[in-house]
C-alpha cells in the first residue's frame, strides 16, 4: 500500500524543508487519492516554486475528479496572465 507523505499534509512545514521537497518530487500518481488531492491543490496555489507546480500539474492531470476541472481552469488563466504580463 502506498501512503501519501504526511509532511505534505502539514500546513506548517516550510517548502524549503528538505523532507518536503523530497516527498513532493518523489511522489507518484499511485499515491494520489480523493482524500489527498486537495493537499496538492493547496500546495500548488501557495507555492512560487515552478518545479513544484509542474510536478503537481503532472500528478493531477489524469486524476479522475470533477472538482479538478475548476482547478485546471484557474491554473491555466493564472499562467496565461503571467505570460501576457511578461511580454513587451
Could you describe the 3D structure shown?
This protein has 88 residues and is mostly helical. The protein has 5 helices and no strands. The chain is globular and about 45 Å long. The termini are far apart.
Short structural description:
With 88 residues, the chain is mainly α. 60% of the residues lie in helices and 0% in strands.
Layout: helices, strands, pairs:
Elements lengths: L5 H4 L8 H8 L11 H10 L3 H11 L6 H20 L2
Descriptive key words:
88 residues; mainly alpha; 0% strand; globular
Q: Please state the CA-atom Rg, rounded to the nearest Å.
A: 14 Å
**Extended strand count:** 0
Give the ordered list of helices and strands.
HHHHH
Determine the structural class based on helices, strands and strand pairing. mainly alpha
**Share of helix among residues?**
55-70%
Annotation field: number of helices: 5
| Overall pLDDT score | 83
Amino acid at each position: 500500500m502506498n501512503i501519501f507523505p504526511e509532511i505534505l499534509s502539514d500546513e506548517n512545514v516550510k517548502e524549503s524543508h528538505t523532507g518536503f521537497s523530497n516527498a513532493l518530487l518523489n511522489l507518484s500518481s499511485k499515491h494520489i487519492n480523493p482524500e489527498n488531492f486537495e493537499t496538492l491543490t493547496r500546495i500548488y496555489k501557495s507555492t512560487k516554486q515552478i518545479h513544484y507546480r509542474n510536478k503537481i500539474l503532472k500528478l493531477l492531470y489524469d486524476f479522475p475528479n470533477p472538482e479538478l476541472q475548476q482547478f485546471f481552469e484557474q491554473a491555466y488563466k493564472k499562467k496565461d496572465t503571467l505570460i501576457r504580463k511578461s511580454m513587451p
